[in-house]
Design a protein that fits this description.
Helix content is 8%, strand content 58%. It has 154 residues and is mainly beta. It has an 8-stranded antiparallel barrel. β9 and β10 form a beta hairpin. The longest helix is centred in the N-terminal third of the chain and has 13 residues. It is elongated and about 50 Å long. The N terminus is likely disordered.
Amino acid sequence: MLSAILVLLIAAVGCVDADPPDTNPNGLEPPDLTGTWSYEARLFGPATVCEVTGVTLTIEQTGEGTFDGTTDGGTLECIRNGEITPEPLPAFPLEDGNVAADGRLIMSFGDRSWRHAGSVAFGGGSMGGETEWEREFPDGEVITLDGDWVAVRQ
């Protein structure tokens, strides 16, 4: 009985294709994200709730599935330890932008301390997902904020 199982196992392993499956069997190309986007996010951390509004995200496609860009403007308003602290956001470079043919994407703002993962909606008019930001506050405390983001093509 054991030898029959071994023969079946060896036969099954012998049938495994050594080449990885085609991850893009339909020949689709990644969406082109070039353009201007309105960006917002809601972030949460220990005793902290933040909202990012009014950010303009400018994206330029740099290759098939790769992009970079910049952020401009916007406000970060946090309620932290019972205090509301609005502050203007500086411009950030957009780095490490990658988008797959199925619309899944990753990107980072600034020094890669503000990371994004998500997807582009069908038709390419919006995108969104999850974000994580290791943010240093004016009092010197560094907090990891997690939340959701959305961007709408202008």
